[in-house]
Amino acid sequence: MRPSKGFWPEYKGLMLFIGFMLVFRSAVADWNYVPSSSMNPTLVAGDRVVVNKLAYSLRVPFTLAHITRWAEPKAGDVITFDSPADGLNLIKRVVAVGGDTVEMVDNTLIVNGHAQQRSLLDSARTVPTEQGPLSVEVWLESLGQRRHETALIPSLNHFRAFGPVQVPEGHVLVLGDSRDNSRDSRFIGFIDVHRVTGRAERVALSHNPQRFYVPRAQRWWLLLESGV
User: Chain-centre distance of CA 183, in angstroms?
Assistant: First the structure.
């Protein structure tokens, strides 16, 4: 019997590969599982989203410490960040950045005094949620030159107004695209840009957790608006 070389010599290659992948996922790119419907209809429960962690800065792996920054989140970006409330990694859409004054009046966003255009696309679209299929209103909303879909749940539409508030410099204001089913800046406050961990670019894979994780092939490699 050939004598063992010891753990490190025998598994060095595997351990180095695992270490490299962990560093890569922490500081370069990763994919995040979407467990909830707070970003309906843009993202649905069961999506796995590709996150570009070099979109704004280079971070020390496994920390929120930044080595250097070269960009800031923009209105319309779908970002991941560590929540200031409990440290959980969340995914939401930036609707205003540092220095902006923002308010919502009857579900319409007003940024720096300009109402953001919105129009009803579908009065009753069924979307998948973690509680099962749900009928929602789907609206097309503009943030400057960028457009995206948002969802309203008429029976739960209690958050149709807030502000005006001014976003502090170095922070962003984020909302979920499912405006009546999202714990976002209306509850956890402004997000320090140093807590931002990346920008969501596209859906890599999607499986339906309500149907034994059957693949949703039509959502695979789906580009998000923030990646345009």
Answer: 12
| Residues 100/5, Cβ–Cβ less than 8 Å | no
Q: Which two tokens stand for residue 109?
A: 């966003």
The residue assigned the tokens 């502000």 is 163
Centre a 10 Å sphere on the Cβ of residue 216 and count the other Cβ atoms it contains: 18
> How far apart (Å, rounded) are the C-alpha atoms in residues 225 and 144?
13
The residue-averaged pLDDT of 126-144 equals: 87
More confident residue, 210 or 180: 180
- Alpha carbon 212 to its chain's center: 24
pLDDT in tens, 179-188: 998 999 999 9
pTM: 0.86
Pairwise CA distance, residues 43 & 207, whole Å: 12
Residue closest to 196 by CA, chosen among 36, 55, 43, 100? 55
Q: How far apart are CA 56 and CA 67, in angstroms?
A: 11
CA 79 to chain centre: 4
